Amino acid sequence: MSGKFKKKTKAKQEIPTTAMPDIVFMLLIFFMVTTVLREVTLLVKVDFTKAENIQKIDQKRLVTYIYIGPERLSGNRYGDTKVQIDDQMITDIPAIRNIMYDKLIEQPKLIVSLRIDLKSEMGLVTDIKEELRKAGTLRINYSTKREL
After folding, report:
1. Residue 25 placed within a domain
2. Per residue in 106-128, pLDDT tens?
3. Phi and psi of 84, rounded to 5°?
4. Which of 23, 50, 84, 117 could lock onto 67 through a cystine, CB 3.0 to 4.6 A?
5. CATH number of the domain encompassing residue 79
6. What is the pLDDT of residues 10-28, one digit of tens each?
7. CA dist 139 to 32, 39, 87, 116, 135, Å?
8. DSSP string covering 102-145, please?
9. What is this structure's pTM?
10. Which of 116, 147, 117, 143 lies closest to 51, judged by CA?
11. How many CA atoms lie within 13 A of 67 on its CB side?
12. Domain, as residue range, for 119
């Protein structure tokens, strides 16, 4: 009787990997489609001026923005006029030269777009433009709203 019944050997359970590249590709496409690019969190208020003759910049990846306006405080209040580059508040105006020079080295065709609040002081804007000139970032753009 012992000859009739043999103990079965355990078969190896392998995970089928033939569909793995398809699954990876679908996940990659899914995350590429659903991912939102990070935008800058504005720490200053910018109410654009209006202009009649404006031109749109085609290559947004070449543009870096400098925001100039009153600092946003808690409770819908606004403080003194401040300068923001990316997500960083700039307290020392001469530091703009080093920041923008580093960006210019990374991207030689850099365009600096100034986003200035209507009520900002023109003296501050002039100081910032002087620092941009010293940094060698001579391609400057002013962001505006289209006048209707």
Report:
1. no
2. 999 999 999 999 989 899 999 99
3. -130, 130
4. 84
5. 3.30.420.270
6. 767 777 777 888 889 999 9
7. 32, 22, 21, 16, 11
8. HHHHH-TT-EEEEEE-TT--HHHHHHHHHHHHHHT---EEE--E
9. 0.71
10. 147
11. 18
12. 50-146
